[in-house]
TrEMBL record:
The protein's name: Response regulatory domain-containing protein
One Pfam family hit: Response_reg
Origin species: Allochromatium tepidum
Residue ranges annotated for the Response regulatory domain, each copy included: 3-120
InterPro entries, sorted: Bact_response_regulator, CheY-like_superfamily, HATPase_C_sf, HATPase_dom, Sig_transdc_resp-reg_receiver
Stored PANTHER family: RESPONSE REGULATORY DOMAIN-CONTAINING PROTEIN (PTHR44591:SF3), STRESS RESPONSE REGULATOR PROTEIN 1 (PTHR44591)
Positions carrying 4-aspartylphosphate: D53
Record keywords, A-Z: Phosphoprotein
Length: 307
């Protein structure tokens, strides 16, 4: 069971969240940001995620969020911001500060569980991907150029994590490659669109539907491709699927109007966290990303998504 720190200055809200999640997760509670920060500093490795109220006395949620994302010990911990302050500007501020998961009060228990599970799955996948391909690093370090095909979810996991071992920041690159390669499989090759994926996730049927479509004989020879090229200063990865493309511009940043969805943040996370640049080509069924071979700076200005 994952352990979550739930932070809210209203006891009734702590009780409601506890009632919704106590059967699935271990929970710890704090009544304001100052208490929460003290608990985090006392046990830096204890929490798999934070459910954080935005407006609180002594230290508000935005200040806790800024401290979490500025501290290497907590940078990978997903933060779910929950607040009655749900204007586009306020949501955008929270997203920009690192709250990739957002809940507007009041929310249904089903929405809370869905967002919490999405956040924990994302973190778990990043950690798992970082461990899968480490044994091949010596061979990969000798590679100048290569191409690989993939079509299944397992192949995405193995390839993305293995290729990421060539990079200075393998865990975040594995996440970024995985998100782009999953998009190539589920949307590009299999034709699962945004609305349909949301419905499948809500019903707990997403993976089952992907596997069902992959088993279709018409899909047997339908692969996506990832190609890598090494230059002195950077690695580039080009991912290409056989679909018609999509309106990729919409997904380069996490639009506040989609902030409450259980999915749809992968491309934006990949762009802002994993890569030095991202360039979609043509209709969107091909994307090239680059990774600097030197350690990336602590703070990067986001690129415009076209180069």
């Amino acid at each position: 069971m994952a352990k979550l720190l739930v932070v809210d200055d209203e006891p009734i809200n702590l009780e409601i969240i506890g009632h919704c999640l106590e059967d699935e997760h271990q929970l710890a509670f704090a009544e304001d940001g100052l208490e929460a920060w003290a608990m985090l500093e006392a046990s830096p490795q204890a929490y798999d995620g934070v459910i954080l109220d935005r407006m609180m006395p002594r230290m508000d949620g935005m200040e806790v969020l800024r401290r979490l994302k500025a501290d290497r010990r907590f940078r990978d911990v997903p933060v779910i911001m929950q607040s009655a302050a749900d204007s586009s500007e306020q949501v955008a501020e929270g997203l920009a500060a690192g709250a990739w998961y957002y809940l507007a009060k009041p929310y249904a228990p089903k929405a809370l569980r869905s967002i919490v599970n999405a956040a924990l799955d994302d973190r778990r996948n990043r950690k798992d991907l970082a461990h899968i391909g480490g044994r091949l690093q010596a061979i990969l370090d000798l590679t100048e150029q290569a191409g690989f095909r993939f079509r299944t979810l397992d192949e995405v996991s193995v390839l993305s994590s293995t290729l990421a071992q060539m990079c200075p920041n393998p865990e975040t690159v594995a996440m970024g490659l995985s998100e782009l390669m999953l998009n190539a499989v589920e949307h590009g090759n299999l034709g699962i669109d945004y609305a349909e994926k949301g419905r499948l996730i809500e019903e707990g049927l997403w993976q089952e539907e992907v596997e069902r479509r992959l088993a279709d004989p018409a899909q047997a020879g339908r692969h996506a491709i990832v190609e890598l090229r090494r230059d002195p200063a950077f690695l580039s990865f080009t991912i290409r699927d056989r679909g018609p493309g999509f309106d990729w511009q919409r997904y380069l940043d996490l639009d506040p109007s989609r902030a409450f969805d259980s999915h749809g943040r992968g491309i934006a996370m990949a762009r802002h966290l994993a890569f030095a640049s991202m360039e979609y080509r043509g209709t969107g069924n091909e994307v090239q990303v680059t990774v600097a071979l030197a350690d990336p700076p602590e703070i990067r200005a986001p690129n415009d998504g076209t180069a």
